[in-house]
From TrEMBL:
InterPro entries: DUF2788 (IPR021249). It comes from the Bacteria. The chain crosses the membrane at residues 6-29, 41-61. It comes from Aquitalea palustris. The keyword Membrane applies. It holds the Pfam family DUF2788. This is DUF2788 domain-containing protein. Keywords: Membrane, Transmembrane, Transmembrane helix. The keyword Transmembrane helix applies.
Length: 67
């Protein structure tokens, strides 16, 4: 396994784990603040936009810059 392959695999695995962990943090924040279902949904929506923006940026770089 080359260094490039290891880097690609480890980035995908670690970022997926980080995104799942951030989802747990958002859920826990909603639960501890007693935000209710609507408040928790808004937390996921607003804070999830940051994760979505990060993923979207990487997809754009892959398709536009690297081609």
């Amino acid at each position: 396994m080359s260094e490039d392959q290891f880097t690609d695999i480890s980035m995908a695995v670690c970022l997926s784990g980080l995104i799942i962990f951030m989802g747990f943090i958002i859920w826990d924040l909603g639960k501890k603040s007693q935000a209710g279902k609507m408040g928790t949904a808004i937390l996921f929506l607003v804070l999830g936009f940051g994760v979505f923006g990060f993923i979207f940026k990487n997809v754009l770089v892959e398709f536009l810059v690297l081609k």
